[in-house]
Amino acid sequence: MTGESEPIGSSSRRLRIAVSMGDAGGIGPEVLVKALAKPELRRLARYQIHGSASAMHSAAESAGIEPFWWTLRLGGAPVSAALVHDAVLIDDDPQGDQVPLVRGASKPQGERSFSYVERAIADARKPASDPTRADAIVTGPISKAAWHLAGRSRYPGHSELLAQRFAAKRWAMFFAGGPLRVVLATVHQPLMEVRNTLTIGRVFDTIDLGAQACRRLGIASPRVAVCGLNPHAGEGGLLGDEEERLIQPAIDLAQRQGIDASGPWPGDTVFNAALASAGRPARFDLVVAMYHDQGLIPVKLLARDESVNITLGLPVVRTSPDHGTAFDIAGKGLADPGSMEAALRMAGAMASGPG
How far apart are CA 115 and CA 150, in angstroms? Predict the structure, then answer.
């Protein structure tokens, strides 16, 4: 067991963040080890990491980092025994270092990565009086295909699982970091189904949740640009009627609620207006995208390894990196920890800030 510690009772309770490592065969262990290897990041909070000791040690070895965490066996010593350590790994390896890592989707790794998230959620749902209760959740990248193999296809991703476990009546995926802030009206679903999923209420909720998030991040009066669904925002109904039938009424409702929302704007031009460039200030503080790739292509193009995925509408802060498992580079020491660092910092800032 390794890690930094301080005497019990030497300081008041510090922020506590539950972290799920992600798929053991992906880059989750590597970016987590690289991020938390920075002492200044460990000083921001205490971290309860749910994951695999063998995967974490392998990642540390490939990155040339000396293990800095305290390890507990799942079901062994109580987590309270390590309350004073900055980083605690709660290890579930059934066979220790004999567990083979698969650099791709596998049922065993899907089962285990799912359980890591469930355990992090359980940390956040503990009573306030419990000293191991988590104030925020940070999730490492998972393989959706592995979750499917493990029989968890009901949940296309973290956001859907978290929304169900916390009984969120409305929720949204929000991306912040780098030059853009983007929130999604629909998330992990086939493009052909988006048209049938959008409603006036869903678009309004996304606008409202996004505006609330901006205010929490320090933007007092966010300017919200709402994308259209169709090319050229429907071209006055010539290329589709969703803009007039669903999106415009949601914008009108948001305006009546005091939100500075406008649109529908064409998705191929609105992101430029949300960027500051060549001495020109950004026209918008937030873009509401109608579907996954409409919002995430510009985010990942302009803010690679900077942006953070935040689930809005939950009773607890949840953040994650904006990237996936990257099985193709996993185990090679090549993964950039920037987005994981940003996710950990954002979780700490939001959990310790107002509202």
Answer: 11
Element (H, E) at 47: strand 46-51
Q: How far apart are CA 258 and CA 224, in angstroms?
A: 12
In the numeric block, the tokens 């912040």 are attached to 176
Mean pLDDT within 302-314: 92
Question: How is domain 170-313 classified at the architecture level of CATH?
Answer: 3-Layer(aba) Sandwich (3.40)
Residue 176 β-bridge partners: 308
**DSSP conformation letters of 57-88:** HHHHHHHT----SEEEETTSS-GGGGTT-SEE
- At residue 136, φ and ψ (nearest 5 deg) are -160, 165
Taking the CB of residue 201, how many other CB atoms lie within 10 A of it?
13
Cis ω before 264 (30° cut-off from 0): yes
CA distances, 284 to each of 31, 252, 265, 344 (Å) = 32, 17, 12, 26
Residue 183 identity (one-letter amino acid) = V
Q: Which two tokens stand for residue 18?
A: 């539950």
**Does the 1-168+314-355 domain belong in CATH 3.40.718.10?**
yes
| pLDDT tens per residue, range 139-174 | 999 999 999 999 999 998 999 999 999 999 999 999
- As given in the structure block, the two tokens for residue 153 are 């296809």
Where in the chain do CATH 3.40.718.10 domains reside? 1-168+314-355, 170-313
Phi-psi map region of 164: left, alpha, beta (phi>0 left; psi -120 to 50 alpha)? alpha
